[in-house]
Fold each of these.
Amino acid sequence: MNQFLFEMANIRDQDSWVHQHEPEKATAKAKDLVRMAVARVRGEGALPYNMVPVTKSALVIGGGVTGMTAALAFADQDYPVTLIEQSDMLGGNGRNIYRNWKGERFLPFINDLAARVTSHPQISVKFNSAIKDVAGSVGKFSTTFSDGQSFEHGVAVVAVGGEPYQPEGKWQFLHGVNPNVHTLLELDKKFIDQDESLKSIDQAVFMHCVGSRIPERPYCSRVCCTHAVDAAIKLKELNPEMDIFMLYRDVRTYGQRERLYQEARGKGIIFVRYDLDHLPQVSEESGRLMIRCHDPIIDADIAIQPDMLVLATAIQPRAQSAGSLSKFFKCAIDGQGFLLEAHMKLRPVDFATAGVFLAGLCHYPKSMEESIAQAKAAAARASVILAQDAVPAESVTAVVNRAKCTGCGVCTEVCAFNAVSLDDNGLSVINTAMCKGCGACVAGCRSDAVTLKNIGNEQIMAAVDAAFCD
């Protein structure tokens, strides 16, 4: 049977479960539901199973490690890829990090990855570019870039990354005021540049959870603890006599990263816990940094005068990039601004919008290993679509009664999928390959010229009449 001739009277969810203590009324409602379903299905017709040819190419947005990994995963399967990057260099945040928790340098890995991407015959990289507009749907997207060029592709992977929180307000701790206060990434820059001044530091303090796990950003940024502990160990390697204090709320060096915490304790790094009710106070006294906090282990207030204060700041979404892309691709974002997957367990790299996938820090704070794994997973999911010649398209699409259409153009303005246009006569035309049956054009039409197949006035009014029939 054609699936569009099926109509369900949901007696269980909409009746027996919600009216279980009123059986007589529930029975009467059940009869109403069945009568409405019968009346509605009488006016419905068999609809075709539409298919859309798949454009066998991919778009990857973001040229960081995640985006490059996804692009190579597509290209190695011989699919053409366009990789779009908003800056003039590939590598993203990874270029600002000295090494990973295993002690492996990032820059050689990133440079090798970037060389593979730029030399791959199936990958086209667009630098200093952004997305201006997106049209179409799964299998047949058309994306317009900021330079006016357009690209046809069947799938898209969003990997725009995140960005570090810039300390401000009560979390500023003299950052930008005192030259001896740095963020973790600023300290990494010193490691990368082999700054000799780091060897002369006698005392350093690391402040964890700066901007994380607070009402404005209630999530844990996950990698900060590992990064901070590893940076402290690196300082100890440069100067074993250096005194280092870790002011932390909770240490989350999870999994095998726990060995870093054990190594740090073994090297004499002191961990002092604080909470939001006893926030460490940072000031300048006699030209030097002064940090006052409470040590709950000895139950006493302590004062530290370090030569350097390092702030482990939160990871936050790129608000502008993620926000605009969520509108272009009709993707959801969570309360913090991170892009939201379709289902945490069942579809962890899919968006609710078919044909669009996500990976990396734009989804949630995660380590580079996890970002790489997610990039490969997103490319694998997208390749399922690219491997097909055609994919199912929406059958319940809009239809225009041209005799009623006045050509006002409201339907073209409200359509989120660019499926409606005006022909040479100024009348509405529906591109059924791009229409998703959302009904926005139906609601916006002033002359009742647009309806949805099998959800027209005839079916709706028949169900309403049946509901009030004795």
Amino acid sequence: MKIVVLAGGLSTERNVSLVSGTGVCRALREKGHKAVLVDMFLGLEDYEGDLASVFDAPDGRCSDVHVSGTEPDLTAVRRSRRDQSPSKLGKNVLELCALADLVFLALHGECGEDGRIQAALDLLGVPYTGSGYLGSGMAMDKAVTKRFMDAEGIPTAPWREVRYSREDIPRLTEELEVPCAVKIINGGSSIGVELPDTKEELAAALEKLLAYGDHIIVEKKIRGRELTVAVLGERYLPAVEIIPGEAYFDYVSKYQKGGAQEICPAQIQDSVWHEMGRLALKLHRALGLAVYSRTDFLVDEQNRPWCLEVNTLPGMTPTSLVPKEAAAVGMSYADLCETVALESLKARKAERA
């Protein structure tokens, strides 16, 4: 198949996405597909030839990329593009997608997991991987996802949705209980997450998160083990336990060598794993997700799982959590990437039937 692996974009998770996309592109080429990596925001600014010939590019236009210890400078990325229009789509991105048999979405965060690129590809009639636009958009919004958890009886920490300005911070600091978790409504990779234990830390957290917008959720902090369970098709995979090197699983812990220990299968009772798997499948289905997803949990001292959130386009670097879970059931990274591609084609065909 001719496959465009769409990555990058203008999300705070841009760098992670590029690493995911590079791994996926090379894996699909290993499987014999004509896969090519395209940065959704920069597009094909450096390409002047026939678009159809892009699929014959050496190594699928992949380059050596890595995730640094700091968030990407999106202002610098914007300035680097010759086209300074407000479009989030780079040169010839949609035109190349229209020539593909499938678009593999290796995007994370804004414009990738929020349903917008899925809707654009639906209008083009181009198949893509993962969930559709509606499920993606709902799952990206932490408040909407929390409402689904509450409606479906999926245990999650008591929470509150907040829209605020700098003038509201003194009042909110008094109203909100600590310790708590404060999260931007549409964040990922632990960017835009603060875990204040005191009122002073809460005020500082609210001030800091205004840099990402005025919409957050605040939830009771539950202390426990951090685990995650992937859904692939109609089954759930072995759980992974994440043991952060620091206080919690932040951006550095996720992507820097030695930042965290990831144990798969997690050393937990089978009953706890099956309960998390049941809840992950239940949330996956309630939101109308497709093909694959990854749901994150905290397990408290009483072995009770508390659901945090669901990821519709989880990290797909060769060492990411979903590939670790797939490897635990004997599925190679290349086989996982191809399975996601083929099952997504079936899902899109079913939606259009």
Amino acid sequence: MTSPKPLTGLVTVMVPVFNEVEAIGPLYEATKRVMDDLGRPWEIIFVNDGSTDGSDRKLDEIAASATNVRVLHFRRNFGQTAAMMAGFDHARGEVIIPMDGDFQNDPSDIPRMLEKINEGYDVVSGWRKDRQDNALQRNLPSIMANRLISRVSGVALHDFGCSLKAYRAEVIKGVRLYGEMHRFLPIYAKWHGARITEIPVNHHARKTGSSKYGLERVIKVIFDLLTVKFMDKFMLKPMYLFGFWGMLFFFASLVFVIWTFYMRTQGYFFTQTPLPMMAVFSFMTGIICGLMGLLAEMITRTFYEAQNKPTYILRSPRDSG
């Protein structure tokens, strides 16, 4: 890996906030001390995700006292993914560092992340190696989910759910996130050819507020992972997926037809076996899969052609050595 010129421009710290009024002040002060010591320009963007506990007023007070603090207020709660998307859209830094607003992430880890960025990595992911959360409700489901995501996506990270990460803006700008897919940002970056590394980071026990997640998050992760896997393998060629299943059902219908006539030679009437109906259903399902594949191909082509989006990604000048 070539050694690029160290980045010296603006660093954006982006913090989604939802009902964390007691943690906001200490988090800002700790982050400010760390960023001031870096000796490079920085900004903090707080995204108020429809808080109802007075977090909005606290954030406005902080922003009024500092020129490098900006606050985005949502009209209602849209969720962490939407809050992070808003932060990315409004960030001006060449490096963007999201972190949680509950002060469980440690701002003192930011300099080490920036060192890794300067080594040539595009994404530095935090790993809460010694996680200070409820073992049954948070830690065990997280371990299972992370192993599943790593295996399915091919991106080997220990902690996809850790919000504390550092991104070069060029690999994250333009990425659109939906649902609960903020945890899959390293996977999206990998699709764009990003170089990813992981470092252990500090994790503090929650001192204020309450957790916004429960065991139901595991189900959401599985559904989102299916979506990500589809987009990874079949975004540009959906017909390969639908066509495969269509051919499989066509083959099944042929087997059922042959089986039906064999059963007829054994003295069974068509009305005495479900095989004819199974053959019809399999044939119709195959037709539907084929038509869905063609429709998906048309939608994909329209998506890229209407927006003049290329189906390739060029390396940036710094990657060409």
Amino acid sequence: MSAETVSEAPAVAGVSRKNMTLGRVSSLVVLLLLIAVPLFVKNFIIFQMTMWLIYALAIMALNILTGGSGQFSLGQSAFYAVGAYTAGIMIEHMGVNYVLTLPAAGIVCFIFGFLFGFPALRLSGIYLALATFALAVAMPQLLKLGVFEHWTGGVQGLVITKPDAPFGLPISQDMWLYYFTLIVSLLIYVASVNLLNSRSGRALMAIRDNQIAASAMGVDLSLYKTLAFGISAGITGVAGALGAIAVQFVAPDGYTIQLAIAIFLGMVVGGVGWLPGSLAGSAFIVFVPNIAEGFSKGLSGAIFGVFLIAIIFLVPHGARQVAYYAEHLFHKLKRN
């Protein structure tokens, strides 16, 4: 089999635009739960829920790249780190309001991802995954370089001041950051759905399904592939900035290849190409390790692996498969 044939094969199974989102009723129920639950739990749980939303945002960004355009990436932790450091440097060294750091992180990471997409154009499948893997491995070392130490803090990192609720709102810092993160996540989710439903989204999915056919229909493969990288990196950068603000700290060792693998794992568990599955995938990588430690701290890694293997065997298409089955069962009961 020639190299051209390998590069033209679809990277992921196609998912229609209609099947990339939840229905209106389901979306409303999920939104109401996201709004209401923090009102009845402690601040530590609220903080965990904030990180859940942040990682879901990063997973959704990867899903746009992989589920939307069919390009694999194991380098999302690098874009996450760039976004986090952009926010940290702007807040601590420049005195910029934390809200303004989010679009700045998104723009910086969009440019970074778009430029990285150019050399990645000649790669596909496992070779693209390896190239992005190398980026993720190199990023923590680059952040430790002495030439950047004045801005990044070197191996010591940067401590970031956690913002208070605005307008004198009588809520805790953790609760304010949760709702702020929820608002940002909703805006990006709606924008992502609209993107995939647009002409550009149809072009991306055409590339995912069959590059030769997409090119024959006039789709600019180079432009849309690099745009997919840029958009995915930009959203991941916003997630990184939110993560830095929530954790109040950035350091190179917080953005290792383990983070990139966790984001990729979250996408698989949530369902490749199904955007709402980002919440399920994020819940898996945020909460399941804690559950595994509850069983046994010494064997937490093994227990986590058992959970993962069970999901792969029982629901190979992740949360998307569970949602489709639940929807089918609901309609069946409704007819009866």
